[in-house]
Every structure is written in structure tokens, then in C-alpha cells.
């Protein structure tokens, strides 16, 4: 399970009493992120939303705790099983492509403005490498020659064109990619992707948006 909460840890899972066990374990450093009592409705987590209680993705933990406390007097409650059931992820219909794309268009990082993050160049180059490992042809649009993404031999084909609706549509028309990645080019690429979606370009050429759904990009 992935959460937007901040990571913090202080519990050594190897020192837990016999009636306690780990509930969450960090997948990166394998540190303990939460513990749970084996029979009583007690559990804790080691992540929190910092100074601003904005993220609500794990608000269900409070609901689950209150339910367990209310029902505990009626009989044993398996909080762990309920938690797994609540956090289980069922992909929405159509969210996962039924067939692997053969050619993917990537909107690159382009020229960066002051205040715009530059990590998209790195993440985009890693995305290209990952696609190549899966034997997927990569088409990159990036007008900035001074990027890692545009290095010779990385993408299968690079177009040094501005990230505008008109130019990107021309590339889509010529290359006919099966899918497109919009989240590796910063705000410029996101804005371009939203504009293409609203203009009906992706549906016109049957291009599937991969990764973050276009609806989420528009909403945020």
C-alpha cells in the first residue's frame, strides 16, 4: 500500500512482546511502520501527515478502530483481516491495458523555467529505459538538447519540437503510438497533454494514456 503520509519510525519489531506483531513494514528500508495486538483491538502506525493534516488516504484507520472497539464486546474482532480487506486494491475496468503497447509517446522535460523542478529529466530517462527493457518502442518529444532524455541511443526516436498541441498532434499522426506518458515533462507537458485530451486528439488516433489518468491530471 502506498500513502502520501510522512514516514517516521521508532519501533524495533524484533523486540515486540508475544501478543504483538508488525502491521506495516516499509518496503524501502524494511523498518517498522505499525504494530497490532493479536487479540485486542489495538494498533498503531508510524506515519503521519506532518504539520498539515491534509492527506486523507488513511482516514479509514480511525473508522476501523472505532468499529473494532464497538464490536469487541460482542466477540473477537480480527482487525488485521479487516484492514487488509479495506486496503485491497481492485483496478477499475479499463485502467490496465489488455495488451501491451508496442510504441509509446513520451512528452519530455523541455526547457525549464525558474521555479520548475528539474527531476523530470531524470525520471523521464528512467521511464525510457524501463520501456526499452520491455521491448516497447519509445518516441520522445523534447525541444531541449541539453537533457539526459535526448542522449543518443536512449529513445528510439527523438523529435526536437516544442511541446504544443499542434506539433505533438503531427508527431502522433506520423508515428501512431499505442500509448502516451504525460508525467515526465513537468508542468509544460501536463498542460500540453490536457490540451490534447480536450481537443480529442488522443481519442482520434486511439492513443491510450498510460500511468496517471488524464482525469487526475485535469483535477489537480
UniProtKB/TrEMBL annotation:
<keyword id="KW-0067">ATP-binding</keyword>
<dbReference type="Pfam" id="PF00117">
    <property type="entry name" value="GATase"/>
</dbReference>
<dbReference type="GO" id="GO:0006228">
    <property type="term" value="P:UTP biosynthetic process"/>
</dbReference>
<dbReference type="GO" id="GO:0006207">
    <property type="term" value="P:'de novo' pyrimidine nucleobase biosynthetic process"/>
</dbReference>
<dbReference type="GO" id="GO:0005829">
    <property type="term" value="C:cytosol"/>
</dbReference>
<feature type="domain" description="Glutamine amidotransferase">
    <location>
        <begin position="2"/>
        <end position="67"/>
    </location>
</feature>
<dbReference type="InterPro" id="IPR017926">
    <property type="entry name" value="GATASE"/>
</dbReference>
<keyword id="KW-0436">Ligase</keyword>
<dbReference type="GO" id="GO:0005524">
    <property type="term" value="F:ATP binding"/>
</dbReference>
<dbReference type="GO" id="GO:0004151">
    <property type="term" value="F:dihydroorotase activity"/>
</dbReference>
<dbReference type="InterPro" id="IPR058047">
    <property type="entry name" value="CPSase_preATP-grasp"/>
</dbReference>
<dbReference type="InterPro" id="IPR005483">
    <property type="entry name" value="CPSase_dom"/>
</dbReference>
<protein>
    <submittedName>
        <fullName>CAD</fullName>
    </submittedName>
</protein>
<dbReference type="GO" id="GO:0019240">
    <property type="term" value="P:citrulline biosynthetic process"/>
</dbReference>
<dbReference type="InterPro" id="IPR016185">
    <property type="entry name" value="PreATP-grasp_dom_sf"/>
</dbReference>
<feature type="domain" description="Carbamoyl phosphate synthase preATP-grasp">
    <location>
        <begin position="101"/>
        <end position="217"/>
    </location>
</feature>
<dbReference type="Pfam" id="PF25596">
    <property type="entry name" value="CPSase_L_D1"/>
</dbReference>
<dbReference type="GO" id="GO:0004088">
    <property type="term" value="F:carbamoyl-phosphate synthase (glutamine-hydrolyzing) activity"/>
</dbReference>
<keyword id="KW-0547">Nucleotide-binding</keyword>
<dbReference type="InterPro" id="IPR029062">
    <property type="entry name" value="Class_I_gatase-like"/>
</dbReference>
<dbReference type="GO" id="GO:0006541">
    <property type="term" value="P:glutamine metabolic process"/>
</dbReference>
<dbReference type="GO" id="GO:0004070">
    <property type="term" value="F:aspartate carbamoyltransferase activity"/>
</dbReference>
